Amino acid sequence: MRVLYSDDVLAHVPRSEMKHGGMIPARESPARAELVRDALAAQGSFVFEEPSRAVPSALARVHDSDYLAFLEGAWPRWEAHIGAGNGGETPDAFPLIFPVRTLEDVRPSVIDGELSYYAMDTGTPLTAGAWMASLASVTSAAQAATCVSGGERAAFALTRPPGHHAAAGKFGGYCFLNTAAVAGQTLLDSGARKVAVLDIDYHHGNGTQSIFYERGDVLVVNIHADPDYEFPFFLGRAGETGRGAGEGATLNLPLARGTDWSGYSAALGQACRAIAKFGAQALVVSWGFDTFEGDPLSTFQISRDDFARMGERIAGLDLPTVIVLEGGYATASLGENVLAGLAG
Ligand code: SP5
Ligand code: ZN
Question: How far apart are CA 284 and CA 273, in angstroms?
């Protein structure tokens, strides 16, 4: 299997994130990608390819132009805003306020206001390298899609930061640019009439769902922790089924706290039947490994062997498949878990 990977994904180095009112080391780290890279390289059968630096054309079809301009220029503006008199290194950027229901819907033009306008949460530090790493990730995802459109059975985009929480104009959940959406749009632009996205991260992929919510050419299926108890709380319920031309092309399978393979496997069966019925010509898998029993963010009880079983079930769909890496924070186990999944 081909692996699209660039060292540029290591450029995003968040320092810390908030937990229970204090700061802890950021969970979404460059080490995640390094350990996956090293595990796959050691296995010997993966073919590594570095993506070109050309910005994929699908990016502008997935994200709003004002959002892309903001992300590209945010760091220098934050640095200029914070830097004077700070002395040491510039701290990571976070929003100050959110455009909530009791406020007017305006787009501010100073950096603190813009961060607040475009952020979805307080858990996603914007760093000096966030744009570079995110751009390398969507480029890898698009190029994996191009490989698959060209006849390869499957390709893996070794991406970070992850992408599935990023909406057309919002960052959050550690995500800035939506890798799965860019892969899906690239498959469509390369000739697929219909594409399915299967999101098997522990968290609901709110960004991917919202990007394709009104489109009938992309089926988005999510298996995830029920938003009644888990992040992102505001999206991912079974009653969300798409709108307009997209009615019926969104499927949410929220699962209870503590779900193990028996419960997960039933949902995966339902997801695979829906994908087969939709009649897609290609598949994107948003694969998060934070369903793992040892993951610090997860309540699910999925084992390494279960990841191999998931891979087998997905391969059974017999569709040209792009796999993008989403979450997975049991960092020491991540390389072996990804290897098991891809082997399946
Ligand atoms: C891509 C991805 O997996 N993003 C996840 C972002 C989750 N951010 C919210 C974390 C909430 C932490 N809850 C603590 C539970 C610890 N037992
Ligand atoms: Zn996740």
Answer: 15
